[in-house]
Amino acid sequence: MGTVVITGLSSGIGQAVRDYFVQNGWRVIGVSRHIPLEQEGYEADLSMLESVEPLATRIGEECKPIDAFIHIAGVWHDESGVLAGKKFHEFSTKQIINTMNVGVTSAMILSARLIPFMNQNSKMIFISGTFQDGGANWLPYFTSKKSLEVFLKGLSEDETGNVKVIGVSPADTATESYKKFYPEQVSQAQSPESVAKVCFDLAIDQLPAESGVILEVRDGRVI
């Protein structure tokens, strides 16, 4: 049916989105630090910005035309644990830089380089978050996602008539990482598959949305 480039597809929401598109006959191109053996894609560390531009150009040239780009990659935990429950001064400089690079700066570079290879009326979908309790105690991740929302709104104005740019803002979602770090809250979280369905429906225009809008997904529904 089409070709979609997805970042962060090796786990969590990204894996669910990947599976949903594959099940519906799409060609899925993955961008992740770890690409499953059966998955077509490119292994890349999006925190290393010097490699993102040549990567994006290569993807465009080798996989064109592209019908959708979905940026899901983000950093809210690392080898030290969940990047939350800390005051801003307690985060390392590396954690701050990596979170911003993966969450928003790499998304900007990928978007800029992939747009020339995208079909007319293609979709660019960016995953942010609801943050109903605000940004305190996980400010780097909060800032990366809110910056991503500002970027996608601006991009929608910049690319009027070329591509449709949409944000998807999921409430708490029961990914494997969420289950690990917040086991007491899993019963109230929505499934990754429900977020994946929203992304797919946006890609095929099954779910109408104006360019620049940010859709909140809670309890498996757009609200």
Topology:
Blueprint: E1 3-7, H1 12-23, E2 27-32, E3 41-43, H2 52-63, E4 66-71, E5 77-78, E6 81-82, H3 93-114, E7 118-127, H4 139-158, E8 163-170, H5 176-181, H6 192-203, E9 214-218, E10 221-222
Parallel strand pairs: 1-2, 1-4, 2-3, 4-7, 7-8, 8-9
Antiparallel strand pairs: 5-6, 9-10
Helix pairs in contact: 1-6, 2-3, 3-4
Q: Work out the oligomeric state of the chains in this entry.
A: single chain
Largest sheet: 8 strands, mixed
Strands, total number: 10
Instruction: Please compute the radius of gyration using only Cα atoms.
Output: 16 Å
H-E order? EHEEHEEEHEHEHHEE
**Order of adjacent strands in the largest pleated sheet:** 3-2-1-4-7-8-9-10
Helix content: 25-40%
Q: What portion of residues belong to β-strands?
A: 15-25%
Question: Total domains, how many?
Answer: 1
Mean pLDDT: 91
The CATH superfamily name is: NAD(P)-binding Rossmann-like Domain
How does the overall form come out from the CA principal axes? Answer: globular
* Alpha plus pi helix count: 6
Catalogue the unreliable spans.
Answer: none
Structural class: alpha/beta
Distance between the termini: 28 Å
As for the CATH topology, it is Rossmann fold
What does this structure look like?
With 223 residues, the chain is an alpha/beta fold. The chain has a single domain (3-222), classed as Rossmann fold (3-Layer(aba) Sandwich), CATH 3.40.50. Helices cover 38% and strands 22% of the residues. It is built from six helices and ten strands, in the order βαββαβββαβαβααββ. It has helices at 12-23, 52-63, 93-114, 139-158, 176-181, 192-203; strands at residues 3-7, 27-32, 41-43, 66-71, 77-78, 81-82, 118-127, 163-170, 214-218, 221-222. Strands 3-2-1-4-7-8-9-10 form an eight-stranded mixed sheet, sandwiched between helices. Strands 5-6 form a two-stranded antiparallel ribbon. Helix 3 (93-114) packs parallel to helix 4. The longest helix is centred in the middle third of the chain and has 22 residues, at 93-114. The model has no long low-confidence stretch (mean pLDDT 91).
